[in-house]
Amino acid sequence: MSDQEERDALNLPPTLYDYAVHLLRETPDGVPPRRGFSLSQQPEPGEVPLSREEAQSAIREALNPLPDDSATLHRRFARLGIRDCHMHLIRAGVAGLPLPAGQWDAARSLGRQLTRTGTTAPAVTAGLTLLVRLGTPEDIPYLSVLGLLREFARPAVDALDTLDPQRAAVVWLAVYARRDELRPLVRALWRGDRQVIRAELVAFPAESRFLSTTVARRIAEAARLPDLLDQYPSDTVLFARAGRLMVRTGCSRDDPTDLLAYRDALTLYESVVTRAGLLPPTLDNHATLLSLALDLSSGPGVLLDWPPGQRVTLLESLGRLLAEPQWASLPDTEVGEADQRLRAGWIRRTGRQPFRRPATPSRLRVEVVAGDPVDREPVETRILLDGRPVVPAFFARGPAHSPEYLLDEGQLRAGSEPSEVQLAEAYCTEGCCGALYVTIRRDGDHVVWENWQRPSTMPGSRGPAPEPAAYRFDAAAYDTEIARAETDRSWSWPARTTARLIKAGLIERPDLLSQWDAKRGWISSGFDDPDTTVVTFGYAPGLGSGKPDGIPLQFRWAVPDDGTPPEAQAAAALNRLAEEDPKNYGQVCGGNRERAEELGFSWPDSA
Q: Could you tell me which of 165, 114, 116, 110 has the C-alpha nearest to residue 145?
């Protein structure tokens, strides 16, 4: 060691592991704060960071060859200009590093040195990423503490997921569960008192806004939910909450791969369904069990690695229970609150759908599934190929498209020319996280689905997604199934039907809007109020003639359900559009304040 290296060794900063331990000990109750801790490190003054390409090259140089000790990697990173801002590139570089089996012990040893004695974020990041690949139970305590530094939470949790999923979930919730309403549960999970965990698990609000698929899955993992149910075998409130967490974990509007990643999913399904008869018959419990049945019938739950016959057995068990008089009569009882009325109507329409099995199995099945309206779940066109739902199997970044798009517009029909069809789009946007496409073509007596297009990876996976195969269908059977799905309206409700009829009327008579320099936009039932039909349109001077003067302003017209038949409500709406300028009764909902004022309209306070 040189004289300079000896002086540097005497002046080493504290390790980041020791720093995290110190922060945890300083917390008032020994529980990490919401969002965990932060390194709060600042860039070197006057330093210009490397570009992405320069950093990637520098990281490759620093890792080749993989050093024997952590000090060497510290020096390489410092010499090559690799800084905190390059942590995501370090993760990618180390994750892709070729590691023959003969180097595993040395690489594991280096990873432990870096995580336990590392003094810089780049070095600790490299160590954590090595332990994602090579960690053993010995590393769990160090990973659990370092994961509380939110800059390290992701690789630490990735490593813990393999070694100790329960601990991984507790750390994840400590850093990422940011809602105040979840903090009492997170504190209980951190402390590990099973009785307190049970109390907080049934106490926290379980509305959809608090429970993304990942939060629901992590709560189930952190609580060791199947074990907790066994510990409290007659606790019906706990069983109802377990069912609710399963529903949220498999939510198609979010990330259904969380359900597939949950290792105890089969056990928890079995526990909840086999003891569902203990639950009191309420609308909330009926909605939970029906949502589970829809998932087991045509949702992401189908994709779990079920033992032969088990899924069908559970589905039949739910079907028998919900057909019993005390459950079947619930939707027809008097309910007062708006959400309960929505839920009762949904159960009346949907209650037997997951239990109707086709007389003869077919290669293609199309099911329109409306989710629980209280959770504002989407209406999606679930496509099952050989019994497996296509969108969560091949895409899983958002739900399948609506029936208004795929069925009403004839997108799934096989014509004489090949057509590329978008089956689903990411919940963010296609431009952000992609979409799922397939080409549909007729080939003599067959219809072929081929040339699938989608993102190269599945959510939560670093490896390439397997390429979907081409599917070939008997053309007559295919046409029959598509025609059946297009004409089946049993899933719909008055406001949704009214929206469909208004849209059809405006397609047939575009002049109803163009006479007011307006153009049809999105038309459907309301998201916040599913019993309201929402008509949106754009307006700009000259838009009706195809020569708009400037960017159109967006308007929203809400048409409440007045109890008359949807056909009458749609006719009345179309007549009003024919006779009255909709800008006089619609509300501005999009564009910008300057454009609204320029055109003489008030900008809404909520926009």
A: 116
pLDDT at 25 over 80: yes
CB 530 within 8 A of CB 499: no
Q: Is the dihedral of CA 140, 145, 146, 148 positive or negative?
A: positive
280: buried, middle or exposed (CB in 10 Å: 19+, 13-18, 0-12)?
exposed
127-150 pLDDT, tens digit each: 999 999 999 999 999 999 999 999
DSSP character string of 267-328: HHHHHHHHTGGGS---HHHHHHHHHHHHHHHHSGGGGS-PPTTHHHHHHHHHHHHHHSHHHH
Taking phi over 0 as left and psi of -120 to 50 as alpha, with beta for the rest, 387 belongs to: left
- Token duo for residue 530: 């599913």
Tell whether omega for the bond before 65 is within 30 degrees of 0, i.e. cis: yes
Q: How far apart are CA 378 and CA 400, in angstroms?
A: 9
Tens of pLDDT, residues 267-284: 999 999 999 999 999 999
**Cα 129 to Cα 601: distance, rounded to the nearest angstrom:** 55
Q: Does the reported pTM lie above 0.85?
A: yes
Q: For 21-114, where are the E strands, in sequence order? A: none
Give Cβ neighbours of residue 30 (< 8 Å, ≥ 6 apart): 24, 191
CA pseudo-torsion sign 489, 492, 301, 257: positive
d(CA 581, CA 590): 18
In angstroms and rounded to an integer, the radius of gyration of the C-alpha atoms of the chain is: 28
pLDDT at 146: 98
User: Does the structure show a pLDDT above 90 at 24?
Assistant: yes
What is the tens place of the pLDDT at every residue in 471-525?
A: 999 999 999 999 999 999 999 999 999 999 999 999 999 999 999 999 999 999 9
Chain centroid to CA 216: 11
- Contact assessment for residue 445 and residue 463, using Cβ atoms and an 8 Å cutoff: no
Cα distance between residue 380 and residue 253, in whole Å:
10
* Interval 378-390 mean pLDDT: 96
The secondary structure element, H or E, covering residue 423 is: strand 419-425
Report the range of poorest mean pLDDT among 9-18, 26-35, 116-125, 482-491.
Answer: 9-18
Looking at 135-188, which runs of residues are DSSP E strands? none
3-class secondary-structure state, position 599: coil
Residue 130 near residue 94 (C-beta atoms within 8 A): yes
